[in-house]
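Input chain follows. Return structure tokens only.
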Amino acid sequence: MSLKEKYSQLIKTEAKRLGFLSCGISKAQFLEEEAPRLEKWLKDNRHGEMRYMENHFDKRLDPTKLVEGSKSVISLLLNYYNPEKQNDESAPKISQYAYGIDYHFVIKDKLKALLQFIQEEIGQISGRAFVDSAPVLDKAWAAKSGLGWIGKHSNLLTQQVGSFYFIAELIVDLELDYDSPTTDHCGTCTACIDACPTEAIIQPYVVDGSKCISYLTIELKDNIPTTFKGQMDNWMFGCDVCQDVCPWNRFSKPHQEPLFDPHPDLLDMTKQDWEEITEETFKKVFKKSAVKRTKFSGLKRNINFLKQ
């Protein structure tokens, strides 16, 4: 076994021990296939008001411009699947990934621990940790590293565990043994395209971000356009429809991360509780949650939009 293989094995074993679902490694280099796709997506204005998507175009496509001297991109998946649903079926819905503590905190701690392990076991390695908060094309790197394929709904998919997981990276200046991409297993299935309430999946593998319910309820700071009246499928924060209908998610298994468990009050809140929510309750239920991103005023806006 070469040193590169040995180090890669060591990293993958530790990633598993830290609770990651899987770990794949690819060479840090320019993402040639993604460049024209990203350019067209931006040119067609599919990012709506997410203007930050236009920034750092070159860094998004080339990790060596993001982390000097980088050689490898270590991609990691962390499961968040929770089969529990809100008890009141008529209550406005919240995306599963936001049930518990904000994933940024949870994953950053695990990534720091992994980087520290690499430095202790292998030596003077420098690198940076990323959790969807920097110009890194997470899904492209995960697919390149063999962790899954990008499905027709543009989420990463795996045959074994579906798509309910977060993607994160460590970009390091260490040469490792690289994995190969897997094949696409969407076949002729169009379940996600057919089920999308706002028809945001405009063609297989292309999502118009400005029509996506997650965008409308989280990213959009203005009022939700009235054209989406009656199309929101009762989602007040995020949306899981394209994942819920995907046949591969039959294989999702409940996560093992206590920090992702919902706040005790969250699943019990009724439709009326949500419609009458106060800032005090918002702060209590979503104390360290990703829902804070939309702020109390944003969540109220979303709930009121569903009521109209």
